[in-house]
Structures are given as structure tokens and as C-alpha cells.
From TrEMBL:
Primary location: membrane
Family: Belongs to the binding-protein-dependent transport system permease family.
Descriptive protein name: Peptide ABC transporter permease
Regions that span the bilayer: 12-32, 107-128, 140-165, 205-225, 267-291, 311-332
PANTHER family referenced in this protein's UniProt entry, alphabetically: D,D-DIPEPTIDE TRANSPORT SYSTEM PERMEASE PROTEIN DDPB-RELATED, DIPEPTIDE TRANSPORT SYSTEM PERMEASE PROTEIN DPPB-RELATED
Subcellular location: Cell membrane
ABC transmembrane type-1 domain mapped to chain residues: 101-332
One GO MF term attached to the UniProt entry: dipeptide transmembrane transporter activity
Keyword set, alphabetical order: Cell membrane, Membrane, Transmembrane, Transmembrane helix, Transport
Coiled-coil ranges per UniProt: none
Cleaved signal peptide residues: none
Topology in the lipid bilayer: Multi-pass membrane protein
Amino acid sequence: MTRSTKAGRIALKQGATIAATFLGLVLVTFLIGRVMPLDPVTAAVGPDVSQEIYDAVKEEMGLNKPLLIQLLDYIGQVLRGDFGVSFSTNQPVIRDIARVFPATVELAAAGVLIGTLIGVPLGVLAAVKRGTAIDGAVRVVTLVGHSAPVFWKGLILLVVFYAALDWANGPGRLSVYYEGVVPTRTGLIVIDAILAREWDVMRDALGHLALPAFSLGYGAAAYIGRMTRSFMLDQLRQEYVSVARVKGLSEFRVVFTEVLPNCAVQLVTTIALTFGLLLEGAVLTETVFAWPGLGQYMTKAMFNADMNAVLGGTLVIGVIFVALNLGSDLLYRILDPRTRT
């Protein structure tokens, strides 16, 4: 078999996997919308309309068709990027998601950055000091971060650093008097403020971002730290480490020039998947901190029985998570030459 033929088969197999995953995701979101104890027709027209109006709206929404036909119609709408109209905002759901999603990306990106900067050094330290009190302390810290509910961490941060110490800005994404000062270019307020050279707005945005980002970042640091420790311990048992020590390399060089680079591929994959998990886990954090992102949008939509918005947001997050999985797998193949064979 030639190299090009093999590559074509791999690409075909991956394409089929992507298509099957996407269809499965669409099917799951469709079924969620049908088993939820919420009536989209009532949400659209209210509970006090006549039966004739109710039936007419139900027919207009296509909910009187057989379930299989509804599924096919739903798949066709999704493929066209049509998630329906939000009953809460009277706007297309895809437009609402485009408006609120940058806030979630900004929060998740800050969280994964904090998680990486804290988690990787903690994992390396725990692996190098395996079995010592330092290792035990790091494992306790990561265990608390991994198991503590995200809303509890958020409330504690607000009570301590905002209400008691007044070290950070409160809920929200930006102070009221700074809203509208910076033109929207990327949707990321910190980046937009830097591009506009509005340094006061940037500092205010960072002050609002600090607590929710750390709330997410602590959980991310716990996961990344535990995985880093595991990767490092696996590499420290390899023969090349013993050879490097026999050659007289210092422990610092062994760890940071020999062992840690060999963990880079696995760490990149872990960090990419962590970013996807933070996008999912931002729902509670955004609710606690009144962060106007996709999580808060979906929460409000759920309370308003706005299933078009809920399913649209769920599908977007699912697609992004699948894309991150595929992207991390591609990075793994690029960075690790052994997988190319």
C-alpha cells in the first residue's frame, strides 16, 4: 500500500468518524428537546391562548409531524446554521450565540491559562518530590480543586476578595460607566481595550475577569497538575533518565531538558481538552458571577422554557468540544513522530 493511499484511507476514516459524531450529537440534542418537560409552543405563545391558536402555532413549528420527520427537519436546519428563533429575545439563536459566546471564550481562555501556569509547575514539583510532604501537599491542593463544586468556589471568592477585602471587582464583565467606551472588534473586552488603547477599561475588565477566571482556573490547575504528575512519573522511570544522570547531568537539566519536553505532547492534548471542559463548566461560574456569556444565556433560556436557545447552545458547545478532540489528536500526530507510522 502506497503512502498516499494509506493517507487517503486515514482521512476517509476520520471524515466518517467526524460525520458520525456530529450526527450523534445532533440526535442527542434533538432527543433532549423532546423529552424535556417543557412545551415550546406554550413558551412561544403563553399559557392563556385558545386551542385553535395553540394548534396553529404547533403546526407552524412543525411539532405535529412524525418524530422522524422532525428529526430530519432539525438536521437540515442545523446544517444550514439555523437553530431557530429565541422566544426570549425574538432574535435568531445563532445571532444570540455569536453575541454572547466571546465572553465565554474569554473566561475559559483565562481559566485555562491560569490552570496551566499553576498546574504544570505543581505537577512537576510533585513528581520530582514524590513521596515527600511537598508531594502530599500538592496532591491535597489538587484534590480540593478537582472535587470542590465550582459554584462554591465562586461564592467563597466573592465573599472573601470582593465583599470582605475589596481586592477585586464585583460581578459582571465591565463596570457600567465603561460600557460602550471600547468598540467591539473581537468580542473579547480585554483584547478590544488593548487595541483601542483604553488602559482604564482594560484594567477594569481584568478586575472583573480575575475572580471567575481563578474559580475556573483552580479546577483546571488541579486536573492539569494531576495529569502532569502522572506524565512526569511515567517518564522518570524510563531508562534515558538513568543514562542522563549517569552522564552527570544535574537534576534540574534532567527534569527540564530531558523529561518535561517528552511530556509536552500529552500536556498539549490535556490542556486542549481542559479548554473544552471549561467551556462546558462555565455555566455555573457565569451564573454566580453574572458573567454575560453562553452559560448565563442558556440558564436564562432554560428558566424561560426557551428550548431553541438551550439546544442551540448545547449543540455549539458539543461541536467545539468534538473539534478540540480532533484538533488535539492532530497535534498529537504532528508533535509525536511515532504516531505518524
